[in-house]
Write a structure and sequence with these properties.
- The complex is a heterodimer of chains A (361) and B (293).
- By secondary structure, chain A is of the alpha/beta class.
- Chain A has two domains: 2-128 and 268-327, D-Maltodextrin-Binding Protein, domain 2; 129-266 and 337-359, Periplasmic binding protein-like II (D-Maltodextrin-Binding Protein, domain 2), CATH 3.40.190.
- Helix content of chain A is 44%, strand content 16%.
- In chain A, the strands form two sheets. In chain A, strands 4, 5, 6, 7, 8, 9, 10 and 11 form an eight-stranded mixed beta sheet that branches.
- In chain A, α2 links the parallel β1 (23-29) and β2.
- In chain A, α12 runs parallel beside α13 (236-249).
- Chain A is globular.
- By secondary structure, chain B is an all-alpha fold.
- Chain B has a domain at 68-258: Orthogonal Bundle (MetI-like fold).
- Chain B has a two-stranded antiparallel ribbon with strand order 1-2.
- In chain B, α4 (69-102) crosses α8 (160-184) and α4 (69-102) packs antiparallel against α11.
- The longest helix of chain B is centred in the first third of the chain and has 34 residues, at 69-102.
- The mean pLDDT of chain B is 90.
- Classes of the chains: A alpha/beta (361), B mainly alpha (293).
- Chain A: Keywords: Periplasm, Signal, Transport.
- Chain A: This is Putrescine-binding periplasmic protein.
- Chain A: Required for the activity of the bacterial periplasmic transport system of putrescine.
- Chain A: It is found in: Periplasm.
- Chain A: Pfam families: SBP_bac_8 (PF13416).
Amino acid sequence: MKIQTLTVATVLAVGAASVTAEEVRVYNWSDYIDENLLAKFEEETGIELIYDVFDSNEVLETKMLAGGSGYDVVVPTGTFLQRQIAAGSFQKLDKDKLPNLSNMWDVIADRTSKYDPGNEYAINYMWGTTGIGVNEAKVKEVLGEDAPVTSWDLVFKPENMEKLAECGVHFLDAPAEMIPAALNYIGEDPDSHDPEVIEKAEGVFMPIRGYIQKFHSSEYINALANGDICVAVGWSGDILQARDRAAEADNGVEISYYAPDEGAQMWFDQMAIPVDAPNPEAAHTFLNFIMDAQNMAAASNYVYYANGNKASQEFLEEDVIGDPAIYPTEAAMNNTFTTTPYPAKVQRVVTRLWTKIKSGT
Amino acid sequence: MRRLVLILVPYAWLLALFLVPFIIVVKISLSDVALARPPYLPQFDWAEGIGAFLSELDFENFVFLTTDSLYWKAYLSSLTIALVSTLITLCIGYPIAYGMARAPEEWRPTLMMLIILPFWTSFLIRVYAWMGILSSEGFLNQFLLWIGVIDQPLTILNTNSAVYIGIVYTYLPFMVLPIYAALDRLDGSLIETAEDLGCSRLSAFWLVTIPLSRNGIIAGCFLVFIPALGEFVIPSLLGGSDTLMIGKVLWEEFFSNRDWPVASAVAVVLLLILVVPIVLFQRNQQKQAEAEG
């Protein structure tokens, strides 16, 4: 495998040498890659890599819909990808330029084809679940030993939240994940597109909104790690990164991640090439580089998210591949749900509801 | 001829940097949202002609703004925040400018420098620094706890108070500089005369200094009020989830709803809220000047 990687790298390096000052612009989520990989890519291919980050699908989507973003590779989540494909934002992948596609994992490819039939436009980068990050000691101090940490009850029951507010709770500022979680909790279809059903989520959030310190989609990593907050509804790998940062700082904070028993949303972040990418050639080179088994494994080992790359699994560290919070058991995989993009009218209902939940107006 | 060129330059500036972008925004506000790139229709097509294009536009999005109380509440809340912060900035900025203008001649360049110095650091970094100062484990709370004024950290970050602090801090130089410019030009002998004629120092200040620095005050207030009204960065970094400002509503229309037409309608209304009072004010000023002249 190693020899094969080297050969690919050499071929790429030789190929790149003929073109001078080539560059590829990548727009990825914040805290979402091992930065050594970026240097490795430049070294192997001779292509200059410009790496920018975002922390919400909405920001990326607006850039895609406006066009002329200047990026060669972007990483929307499945539902957003599906809508952006429909809007004509992406170009079809040239699979001949992506020999490492053979490394991909059919189980995940199967699931992502729901958003991108035939996986024509995107490759899977990482996937994960949306669940709850807990500072075990603080939560047990506030709620007692039998705190319902494996259940959405922890954050959706007002009596729990009232007590947790003392030590701080953050929620994701992502209506497309928080509202399905609430609907799932009250036994409705989490992927409902019926405004009447969606509005039932209001009943879950209104009694607890006052106890939520902040709605934010990236600050909770540090806040959890520093012990500033004790509970965050967030993305699996981000919470595991918080766990890791706390362990590194050796500050006595212990963080765990739970995909709640009632079911958690499963999502897929997909790498795609904008239709107006300045350098689609280099973009393909980057995608192929990422799909290399060892590179993908290095990324997952670093960010604690599972990937859609079967071949990478033998290079994963035991605390990644062996951690059911990252690679769930099959039973846990089946206890997840996925969602589909909201049509414009329904999106307005969702956003309006979310504004009401956040601001009270 | 030379006069014509002189007049043309500012008008060309206004046309290129205000009117053209404004017309584009108005045009989008009259369009319909669509799943396309860019996400609205109709796109202008020369083949179909301007008539067909215009006939597809309508005021639906403006009507929509009246159907949800969120919008006027956000406008109102933004107006309140902008107005209050302008007043606070004036109350802090005026004494600073006054002190600068009264300082010995050789100090003034240094004082001026000190006012401008914060601009050497990026605005965003300075707002982030306030997050560090105001948070519950931040410098301010640590200090207050240390001197024993409070025994529980105050919650300032993520509230409207933090937004006021951020706006006042950020825009203070815009208030100080025009007032300083006005006070600097003030003829000191006028105040002496007033005092000779029996005014106390305080009433000389009220009757002479304030009226003569009026233009500086007005310029300063506009420079603070206008950007504060549409402020987005400060409320989103320092404000809480219940801080309602039109900048955030605009963001949500644009990014979450992908509804550029409604976002544009919100922006057009915001502009009207700003421009109409300013134009009326200017008219009034002109009339006054004519009456006096």
